[in-house]
From TrEMBL:
Pfam families linked: ADH_N (PF08240), ADH_zinc_N (PF00107)
InterPro entries registered for this protein in UniProt: ADH-like_C, ADH-like_N, ADH_Zn_CS, ER, GroES-like_sf, NAD(P)-bd_dom_sf, Zn_alcohol_dh
Cofactors (names): Zn(2+)
SMART domains documented for this protein: PKS_ER
Record's keyword terms, sorted: Metal-binding, Oxidoreductase, Zinc
Lineage: Bacteria, Pseudomonadati, Pseudomonadota, Gammaproteobacteria, Oceanospirillales
Family classification: Belongs to the zinc-containing alcohol dehydrogenase family.
Name used for this protein in its record: Zinc-dependent dehydrogenase
Location of the Enoyl reductase (ER) domain: 7-343
Organism: Franzmannia qiaohouensis
CDD domains: iditol_2_DH_like (cd08235)
Length: 346
């Protein structure tokens, strides 16, 4: 089969490799959609190294068609359309027992420990089938929509950590694919208004079309003044930081009101540190949370929201590039000229 092999940062090569087989308890899928995640770009740029093998196949947002069913697998047949929560929990560690399987101490994941989806075929390990990480698709759900259930589920995790709810004023910093998903989820959660800050004009347009109440260009406008003006003069209930820039952390805490919540959703470059005013957290009683991966519950919720048409996930795909052009696809994704990039097979 053809696959994009990650050898080292900035070195992904389209190559012919042996097609995997479904062993006992496993499934083999023909990849029908694989989308590029911010994390894939951070691996590509060398900003993320944890858990990344070389050489390996990355890509963890995918959907595909079952082409081979290993011995002992029940509930799946050749021809089924499926998608997968790529983070496989051990179900035994302290975190799994506490319902925080997204931070499982022994988690394994597609695109990391197991070869990922930037390939013609992908082998689903038995542990991932046994744990219920594989979902059959609704016939009306497109492959690409289903692939996006993973990033959307990660956003659901962030919104749950930030306790986004009915009547909240929510500010989203960044209108990349993740910021745009947060915008839509905040709407679904009952936010009274969502303000999106984004320097890229095209992305601001998309945010407006997806229902942002106010879009701000932080390079020419005073974001803090815009937020205060719309939020009773005291700031937002929630700020979601959907760009991994440490310099945004302190300003994000200045945008929320007392008792407000700040979610550091985007990952930062390994080793980065931020200067924060601790009194903002202390006197204002701000709650700062993070976001790591997703749980099976959140994945299922995400897939159902997409199936129901509540979240317009497919609309976020702006570019489709062939697997053979994986390097170009990574560059397009990193350039910010589009929103979400899908890797397709000719
Ligand atoms: Zn992802
Ligand atoms: Zn665990």
């Amino acid at each position: 089969m053809h696959a994009a092999i990650f050898h080292a940062p900035n070195d992904i090569r389209f190559a012919e490799v042996e097609t995997p087989k479904a062993d006992d308890g496993e499934l083999l899928l023909r990849v029908r959609a694989a989308t590029i995640c911010g994390t894939d770009m951070r691996i590509y740029n060398g900003q993320k190294t944890k858990g990344v093998r070389t050489p390996s196949i990355i890509g963890h947002e995918f959907a595909g068609e079952v082409v081979d069913v290993g011995r002992g697998v029940r509930g799946f047949a050749v021809g089924d359309g499926v998608s997968m929560d790529p983070v496989i929990p051990c179900l035994k560690c302290e975190y799994c027992k506490q319902g925080r399987e997204n931070v499982c101490a022994n988690r394994t994941a597609m695109g990391y420990e197991f070869d990922g989806a930037f390939a013609e075929f992908i082998r689903i390990p038995a542990t991932g089938i046994a744990s219920g990480n594989v979902y059959k698709l609704h016939p009306d759900t497109s492959w690409e929509q289903a692939a996006l259930a993973e990033p959307l589920a990660c956003c659901i995790n962030g919104q749950e950590n930030a306790e986004v709810g009915m009547g909240d004023s929510v500010v989203v910093l960044g209108a990349g694919p993740i910021g745009l998903m947060h915008l839509q989820l905040a709407r679904v959660a009952g936010a009274r208004q969502v303000i999106v800050s984004e320097p890229n004009a095209k992305r601001r347009e998309v945010a407006a079309s997806l229902g942002a109440d106010l879009v701000v260009d932080p390079t020419t406008e005073d974001l803090s003044a815009c937020v205060k003006a719309r939020c009773d003069g005291i700031g937002a209930d929630v700020v979601i930081v959907a760009i991994g820039l440490p310099v945004l952390v302190n300003p994000a805490m200045q945008l929320v009101r007392k008792n407000g919540r700040v979610n550091l959703f985007a990952g930062f470059t390994a080793g980065d540190t931020a200067v924060v005013d601790p009194n903002l957290i202390h006197y204002n009683e701000i709650k700062v949370s993070g976001a790591s991966a997703l749980t099976r519950r959140q994945y299922e919720k995400s897939l159902r929201l997409i199936e129901a048409g509540v979240i317009a996930a497919g609309d976020l795909i702006t570019h489709r590039l062939a697997l053979a052009d994986i390097n170009e696809a990574m560059q397009v994704a990193a350039s910010g000229e589009g929103v979400k990039v899908s890797v397709v097979h000719e």
